[in-house]
Amino acid sequence: MPSNSPERASWSAVKDKLTALPPGSLIALTRDLYRASPENRRFLHARLLGPAVEIAKYRELVRAAIYPDPLSRRSVRLGEAQRLIRHYRDATSDLPGTLDLLLTFVEAGTEQAADLGYGDERYFVALERALDDAAEIAQRLSAPTHRDFERRARQLSDRAAVIGWGFGDYVAEVVAGLG
Known about the structure:
- The protein has helices spanning 11-20, 23-36, 38-49, 51-66, 78-92, 95-116, 121-139, 143-160, 167-176.
- It is mostly helical.
- The chain has one domain (23-176).
- The model has no long low-confidence stretch (mean pLDDT 90).
């Protein structure tokens, strides 16, 4: 006798349904998800075709979210940039690529603040967290990747030196701790 209570929406319930699908239906479902949004397409490209296929697009989107063209009247979208980085990391498990996107986030934010005087506490806290995450990831990577991180961090520190809010000092402290 069927239950009158609706099935609870959860990953477990979805997984049970997916397990029961024949391969053709699973492919059709994936196709529908692929068509549903550019975000889904990027995720599937990165997961199934490899990080190199999508890293440039993710980098461009992160940069545009943090430092939109000032004449475009688009707002700075911290949350969108952070979400893009999370999606890339989740889709690929590519730590060097994630490091690159985190640095792109901080570099673009630093440029925005230095060029246009943009920023507030929330903005700089997000940049600092991304830099901390990048430094933590860099510690786990190969020596050449870590050296590239240090080079970019030093350039970032030079650029951040002109920014107030304590941000320039924070970046300088992180860079000093790398040596």
